[in-house]
């Protein structure tokens, strides 16, 4: 014997499996697309924000570290210029304090020379040169009296500019030094020159005072790019600097570049205002951006952790959403299957009731005739009486059998069970509309709720109410055009009833149609309608103790109003 399956439950055959397989693939594609879109939507702003913050932080850190270095170079340049101005001013002061004749004497010049060495330090020698370029007096370690400087460039320059500061040079002395000269004019228009040389140890002291770290460098170059002080990485004194320093105007200039050693460096250069010297500071990029490297690493870790966290949340949220969509689709599909099954049962029940009714009438006649024939046989004497009684008994047995069959058909027509529970009609209405969400989107139908949130719960059957609402909303969807509107309202009528109305702005109905809409098998959907939806709806509403009303005009739409009792009759009697 075959096992009877419950309503709506059927064994899954090969065709149903083939249908479910694309459904699973659809949910997988939906999950994948949602994850990709959400990751892109979140990752792109996060990445942009991280990159922008990184660039801003790098620029700010670079500025914060470069500005103090720029200030150090400015101060050092100013110190060098003050040093040179101080030394040339001292020679000018000597020229204005002594006459040519006084300085021509060896004793006076030696006294001045010793005073300069003790006061300022660094002076190597001091010489007095007349207007013909002949050194007439000299104080120092060398024998230079009588040396002729008339044809040398510095002597010609001091005649034009009044003062002269040379580049660093070795000369026959064999160590770096510079020459300073100042011209002194006599009242009669003649002149003489006081010239001194001094070592560059003071330059090294000023550079050391800048407080550079071991991997940084600072040096002075002249306008030809020749080192005036020793460089730690780019050459010795009087060598061509291996680091190219472009000539620039006044002020301090910062350049980010790669040096000949392949190091990424920041080059800070400042040109002297009154002399053709340039002070250059070289700092490795790693030193300037040391704090930035630590911050960048932290930002990378934070970005990765944030991205991983967001991705995990996206996976979890997406799985939950897809699962809910899948559950909603399954519930909707199950609801439609149950509705279809219920409609089929209702149709079969009505057919069974009609068949039973039609069969019962001729069965009653046959039963009466058989009884009459039996009575006649029993009262009259027939030669074949026993045979006739057996035939009438057989007829009565068949009639009784047919009666039992029709009784079972009538019982099947009436077997629509009702399960009462306390329900919120608004929730049932919203839940039912959720089954048709895709149809609303596909047809671009706008659904509007005007629900009274204060209405009380009622005692009714959830499934039956869903069937009622679903049938009417389905008809509303069929009535409206693309972009139509459906309005669902609920309100409290009185102490006994609440009301729910479903309105559409569709085609509407004529009076003749409205008179027949609750009749079984009447339909305006000629190609696909069965005419059972509203008939079943009307019967369910009446069974639940309510009523249904309809208002409609052609071209303006229709409104179905369902009145539902707050309590069932049995519950009201018990309370009373």
What can you tell me about this protein's structure?
The protein is an alpha+beta fold and 576 residues long. Among the domains are: 204-290, Beta-Lactamase (2-Layer Sandwich); 327-413, Signal transduction histidine kinase, dimerisation/phosphotransfer (DHp) domain (Helix Hairpins), CATH 1.10.287; 421-575, 2-Layer Sandwich (Heat Shock Protein 90). 53% of the residues lie in helices and 18% in strands. The chain contains 14 helices and 16 strands. It has helices at residues 14-97, 100-104, 106-119, 153-161, 201-208, 285-288, 290-379, 385-413, 425-435, 437-443, 462-479, 511-516, 533-543, 569-575, and strands at residues 123-129, 135-139, 163-165, 177-185, 191-199, 217-222, 252-258, 264-271, 277-284, 421-423, 446-451, 458-460, 485-492, 497-504, 547-553, 557-565. The strands form 4 sheets. It has a 5-stranded antiparallel sheet with strand order 2-1-5-4-3, sandwiched between helices. A 5-stranded mixed sheet has the order 11-13-14-16-15, with helices on one face. Strands 6-9-8-7 form a 4-stranded antiparallel sheet. Strand 8 and strand 9 (277-284) form a beta hairpin.
